[in-house]
Design a protein that fits this description.
Layout (H helix, E strand, L loop, with lengths): L1 H9 L5 E4 L3 H20 L5 H8 L2 E4 L10 E4 L5 H12 L7 E4 L6 H5 L8 E6 L8 E6 L5 H13 L3 E6 L6 H17 L4 H11 L5 H8 L1 H15 L8 H9 L12 E2 L9 E2 L1 H9 L11 H21 L6 H12 L8 H8 L1 H14 L2 H4 L3 H9 L7
Parallel strand pairs: 1-2, 3-4, 4-5, 6-7
Antiparallel strand pairs: 5-6, 8-9
The structure holds nicotinamide-adenine-dinucleotide (NAD).
Nicotinamide-adenine-dinucleotide binds next to α4 and β5.
InterPro entries: 3-OHacyl-CoA_DH_NAD-bd (IPR006176), 3HC_DH_C (IPR006108), 6-PGluconate_DH-like_C_sf (IPR008927), FA_oxidation_alpha_subunit (IPR050136), NAD(P)-bd_dom_sf (IPR036291)
Catalytic activity: a (3S)-3-hydroxyacyl-CoA + NAD(+) = a 3-oxoacyl-CoA + NADH + H(+)
Subunit structure: Homodimer.
Length: about 400
Amino acid sequence: MGAGIANVTIDKGLSTVLIDNSQQGLERGRNQICTHLSQQQKRKKIGLLEKERILSRLVSSTDIAALKRADVVIEAVFEDLPLKHKVIQQIEQHVGKHTVIASNTSALPIKEIAKASARPDKVIGMHYFSPVEKMQLLEIIVHDGTSKETLATAAQLGLKQGKFVVVVKDCPGFFVVRSLAPMMSEVFRLLLEGVSPEEVDKLTKNFGFPVGAATLADEVGLDVAEHVAQFLGKALGPRVAGGSPQLLSELVSQGNKGKKTGKGIFSYGDGKKGSKKVNEDAVKLLARHKLVPPTNCSSTEDRQLRLVSRFVNEALLCLEEGVLATPSDGDIASVFGIGFPPFWGGPFRFVDLYGADKLVGHMNKFADAYAREQFAPCQLLLDHAKSGKKFYKN
Ligand SMILES: NC(=O)c1ccc[n+]([C@@H]2O[C@H](COP(=O)([O-])OP(=O)(O)OC[C@H]3O[C@@H](n4cnc5c(N)ncnc54)[C@H](O)[C@@H]3O)[C@@H](O)[C@H]2O)c1
């Protein structure tokens, strides 16, 4: 992620320092940037001179002191709170008093991250999406102590990087990952019920998602997914349950971390078209943890709605709780962050178009077949179902 963030910064004319504590990690990052720019050159999007000009803005180092003149530092180390604390304190030893320190955490509350800082008003969340070069969203997260100047600096940088910026309040998972977590849990339940990864991809793509949900899990990284599932499982409780964190742990402990390790739910061979196959390790583990599905929730439409309703319900809860300021913030974040089917317009527009009452009917059927906490419609959805009220006037 760090390399992707650096990449969308140097190509907008900003000098950037890429730091990693391992030479290997640093080279991996630099190679990722060089490969991306070479592809751009091959496709004639940039010339050789421009490529060299962009690369000349990048300094890479294993010495954190190289950050000393930075106005903004974005940390993207492993998703581990004590490590993030350590890194923030190291950064603060070298940067100026004005420097904004942003965390690209997927789910850890910014308030918790800011506890290690000597100037929490300068700490903010800047949550990018993978691959950073392609995904247009930047979710900015403010904690109660973040200053207005810090927010303005972070938003200005995001806009310069060419991102759609949505500002949300601090909570575990923020908006996008929090809404995605119950849906990903349902993806794993479908796999455990014997729906093949190809079929999971097909039914989500047919619904309108640009990337199939099983492939999305591999793109995000099964280690990241495991961490988020466990963390949000604790923070949000049974609403996130349904899949199997145990299955994810076993997959990850065998080295199946997703695309980055060449195998996750799928194995990626040499990366050429047609080399992607279902990973045999995943097949064995799925068979070992197999679940028997109820008969009345397994049509293609049921499976699609089981996934989508869990995303939509959590998104509405975020509006209900004030994590989101408006329905359109949630719709923009969902379409540009995880590719919620654009023709549905996002979860809020989906409720308006599909019908809140119809959706509540399906969710109640799923709640009876599985667990009520996983599918119980939130109050806002129930209110819209009862009153016929819409999120948008037209
Ligand atoms: N992968 C995603 O799709 C995604 C999306 C959004 C946010 N994130 C978040 O971004 C962060 C990084 O995730 P990732 O998938 O890029 O992980 P990654 O394992 O690919 O990269 C982490 C890098 O941090 C380096 N590192 C570790 N400790 C360090 C230290 N003390 N100083 C400097 N560098 C150090 C490692 O060498 C490694 O290169 C996590 O917080 C994750 O939750 C990931």
